[in-house]
């Protein structure tokens, strides 16, 4: 139950990315509307994780609140990637029908601020009550039905993510504390939609003094156990010089 008064024409939408060691995924919320008399499904699609801000909170606080409700996690990587105020954002017949159906006092024109969110899948438990929240492979989004302009927002977020992982170490936000070099390579391949030569990739990583090898190895795997590594933010901040390229 909403305990704060909403701002009817300002929202935040979070494009939440996760990585399952094989593919890049995005977190979506199922949107469904069924005619109470006939049982006919009138709307069935997906939205990003978003909602209107409250009068007593700022944009960052709203994004944090929304993700806390979805995952139960604090201290999630969050960064604005754009503001969207196109005239037709909520004007399609389907979306107008949905807004009339939920009847929560939203304005006819809504400006949303998009947030890029990166989450370690191993730490996530989806907790949004009375809604169906699921991970979907990024490759599926092209053929999916999405609410409002959320598909457009998704692709803008993906573009921002792909730019940033080339110059900032934000990709490590998608990994657990300990990871193998194979997992790291698969992550960069999934993020950038390409493949890398294993030997060249590892040479590049060897130059990253903030990717620290551990004496710990995998256990209970059907292959030769791989060595674990960790990313040290402290070492990164101390050793970086100017603009760093993370292009492998």
What does this structure look like?
By secondary structure, the protein is α+β, with helices and mostly antiparallel strands. The chain has helices at 59-71, 93-102, 150-164, 181-192, 198-206, 233-239; strands spanning 6-19, 24-34, 41-47, 49-54, 77-84, 111-119, 133-137, 211-217, 227-231. The strands form 2 sheets. Strands 1, 2, 3, 4, 5, 6 and 7 form a 7-stranded mixed β-sheet that branches. The longest helix has 15 residues, at 150-164.
Question: What is the residue-averaged pLDDT?
Answer: 90
Which fold does the CATH topology of the largest domain refer to?
A: Nucleoside Triphosphate Pyrophosphohydrolase
What's the CATH class of the largest domain, please? Alpha Beta
The biggest beta sheet reads: 7 strands, mixed
The ordered H/E elements are EEEEHEHEEHHHEEH
| Sheet/helix structural class | alpha+beta
What proportion of the residues form beta strands (DSSP E)? Answer: 25-35%
* Strand runs, count: 9
Count every helix, treating DSSP H or I runs of 4 or more residues as helices.
6
Terminal-residue CA separation:
47 Å
Percent helix among the residues?
Answer: 25-40%
What is the CATH architecture annotation of the largest domain? Alpha-Beta Complex
CATH superfamily of the largest domain: Nucleoside Triphosphate Pyrophosphohydrolase
Spans of 5+ residues with little confidence (pLDDT < 50)? none
Principal-axes shape call: elongated
Radius of gyration: 20 Å
- The total number of structural domains is 2
């Amino acid at each position: 139950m909403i305990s704060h008064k909403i701002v009817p024409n300002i929202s935040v939408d979070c494009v939440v990315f996760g990585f399952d060691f094989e593919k890049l995924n995005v977190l979506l919320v199922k949107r469904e509307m069924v005619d109470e008399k006939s049982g006919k499904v009138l709307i069935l699609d997906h939205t990003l994780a978003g909602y209107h801000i409250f009068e007593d909170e700022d944009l960052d606080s709203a994004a944090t609140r929304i993700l806390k409700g979805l995952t139960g996690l604090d201290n999630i990587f969050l960064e604005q990637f754009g503001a969207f105020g196109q005239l037709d954002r909520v004007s399609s017949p389907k979306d107008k029908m949905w807004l009339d159906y939920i009847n929560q006092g939203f304005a006819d024109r809504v400006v949303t601020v998009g947030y890029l969110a990166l989450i370690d899948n191993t730490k996530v438990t989806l907790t949004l009550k009375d809604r169906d929240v699921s991970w979907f492979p990024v490759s599926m989004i092209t053929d999916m039905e999405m609410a409002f302009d959320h598909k457009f927002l998704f692709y803008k977020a993906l573009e921002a993510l792909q730019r940033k992982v080339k110059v900032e170490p934000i990709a490590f936000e998608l990994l657990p504390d300990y990871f193998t070099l194979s997992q790291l390579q698969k992550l960069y391949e999934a993020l950038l939609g390409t493949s890398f030569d294993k030997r060249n990739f590892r040479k590049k990583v060897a130059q990253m003094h903030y990717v620290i090898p551990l004496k710990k190895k995998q256990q209970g795997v059907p292959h030769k156990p791989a060595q674990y590594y960790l990313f040290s933010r402290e070492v990164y901040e101390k050793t970086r010089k100017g603009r760093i390229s993370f292009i492998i």
